[in-house]
Design brief:
Elements (H helix, E strand, L loop, with lengths): L1 H25 L12 E4 L2 E5 L16 E4 L2 E5 L9 E3 L6 E4 L3 E5 L5 E4 L5 E2 L5 E2 L5 E2 L9 E6 L4 E6 L6 E5 L2 E3 L7 E4 L2 E3 L8 E3 L8 E4 L1 E3 L5 H35 L2
Antiparallel strand pairs: 1-4, 2-3, 5-20, 6-19, 7-8, 7-11, 7-15, 9-10, 12-13, 13-14, 15-18, 16-17
Helix pairs in contact: 1-2
């Protein structure tokens, strides 16, 4: 019976939907995390009476047809790249982006990754790095005798040096943005990679036209909304249960048909 297969596709789709929702909820406290949502499409149809086909020799046509669908499929899990709230951390090397843009990170294999997670630290050489030790491009090195570091909204990094009255410029942070942010590939570790779908990055300083500004001693929080995720989870659960009911009903109908043959 066709209904068994059709309902099974619905159950499989809602199972994947729950997996996506569970990942969103699991990352509610992940800095810079962007939630995903599931997008579905219906499967192919079998046309038993094609709409618009001729219904008589006089040229009349069918105003409606008979099409039987075969279920549903998951086609995409795009990320919702909306701004997350920013929270104060009191750490001088925590940096939040308010607006468009990603920090650039140099990976060990020479490729560039992109992140909204600005929870940075200093390595033994004084370089600004991620929590995994990857250097933040274009490369900022803080001298060992620096008393404090200030990062402006436009990404200019300055240090107060022991024994000096004037501050020392350490460099300029840059941001990258993409025409299609949802086309970035999630690598894990709060990193994204460029893809043909995302397009090539546009790089400029924070505060430039089309780019956001940065906030020192702040971190961008996840954009996951707990209430929305729980309501989506309940809806997915109900849809799964309804599809399972279809399977049970189709099984009972098959049993009834088999009993009639005895």
């Amino acid at each position: 019976m066709r209904a068994l297969y059709t309902a099974s596709t619905g159950m499989a789709a809602q199972e994947m939907n729950v997996e996506i929702i569970s990942n969103n909820i699991a990352n509610m406290r992940t800095s810079g995390f962007k939630r995903q949502r599931a997008e579905f499409q219906d499967l192919l149809y079998e046309s038993l009476r094609r709409v618009g086909s001729s219904s008589s020799d006089t040229g009349t046509v069918l105003p409606t047809g008979v099409d039987i669908g075969s279920g549903v499929k998951l086609v995409a899990t795009p990320r919702v790249m909306s701004q997350g709230s920013v929270a104060a951390t009191e750490k001088p090397y925590d940096i939040a982006i308010r607006g468009e843009g990603f920090f650039q990170v140099n990976l060990p294999d020479g490729t560039t990754a992109y992140t909204r997670d600005g929870s940075f630290e200093l390595d033994p050489n004084g370089q600004l790095v991620t929590a995994d030790g990857y250097v933040v491009a274009p490369g900022i090195t803080v001298p060992a005798n620096a008393l404090s570091v200030a990062i402006s909204a436009t990404g200019e990094v300055e240090a107060t040096i022991q024994g000096q009255t004037a501050t020392q410029n350490l460099g300029q942070l840059q941001l990258a943005r993409f025409m299609n942010k949802s086309g970035l590939e999630a690598k894990g570790d709060n990193l994204f990679l460029e893809t043909p779908a995302s397009g090539t990055p546009l790089v400029d300083i924070p505060g430039a036209e089309g780019f956001g500004s940065v906030l020192q001693s702040y971190l961008e929080q996840s954009n996951v909304n707990a209430v929305t995720e729980i309501s989506d989870l309940i809806a997915a659960q109900r849809a799964y249960e309804m599809n399972s009911k279809v399977v049970s009903s189709a099984d009972q109908m098959l049993q009834a048909s088999a009993a009639m043959m005895r």
